[in-house]
Amino acid sequence: MAVVEKTFSLKEMVKRSGATPRTIRFYEEVGLIAPIGRTPGGHRLYSERELEKLGFIADLRDAGLSIEEIKELFDLRRAIGNAKEGSAQVARRLNEKIEELRRRMTVLSRLRDEFASSVDIFQHSCAECRHTPGQEVCDACTDIDHAQLPRTFRWLWNVH
């Protein structure tokens, strides 16, 4: 007995992945995903594997990888002649990405902390302020510790 593979329409792919139809068609155009066929009415059909791949691509995009970088990662295996050489190149490239992600995570962590500190100031020190925001007024405010202001607050609120 043949195993029947579950297929998904474009509409189902959108519903299950959260991607837009335009994004899915774009990924198809650039060769990142591919339909496995079409319905009698001509609608695209995708495999469960392509749905999973779509989720992986979304994660890579959220991590900051460009479409070109993602294509490069997917194409590495096909571009190499043997497993030994291919696995070494893929491992090298993934290690480079790990380092990029570490650097990005450091920046994101720092920004998260700055944003949280700024939110705290806005919600506690500025929440009851009746003055019109302006550099002179805010620079003279005694409710905030000017020596400890996060960059986010200083530059978005123009207080130094």
Looking at this protein, list some descriptive labels.
Multidrug-efflux Transporter Regulator, Chain: A, Domain 2; 160 residues; mainly alpha
In short:
This protein is mainly alpha-helical and 160 residues long. It has helices at residues 10-17, 21-29, 48-62, 67-79, 83-125, 135-139, 151-157; strands at 7-9, 37-38, 44-47.
Mean pLDDT: 90
Protein structure class: mainly alpha
N-to-C SSE series?
Answer: EHHEEHHHHH
Principal-axis shape equals elongated
Percent strand equals: 5-15%
Task: Report the CATH topology name of the domain at 1-66.
Answer: Multidrug-efflux Transporter Regulator, Chain: A, Domain 2
Largest sheet: spatial strand order: 1-3-2
Distance between the termini: 74 Å
CATH architecture of the domain at 1-66: Orthogonal Bundle
Question: Which residues sit in consecutive blocks of at least 5 with pLDDT less than 50?
Answer: none
> What is the strand tally?
3
**Largest beta-sheet details:** 3 strands, antiparallel
**Which value, in Å, is the CA radius of gyration?**
25 Å
Count of helical regions? 7
**CATH C-level class of the domain at 1-66:** Mainly Alpha
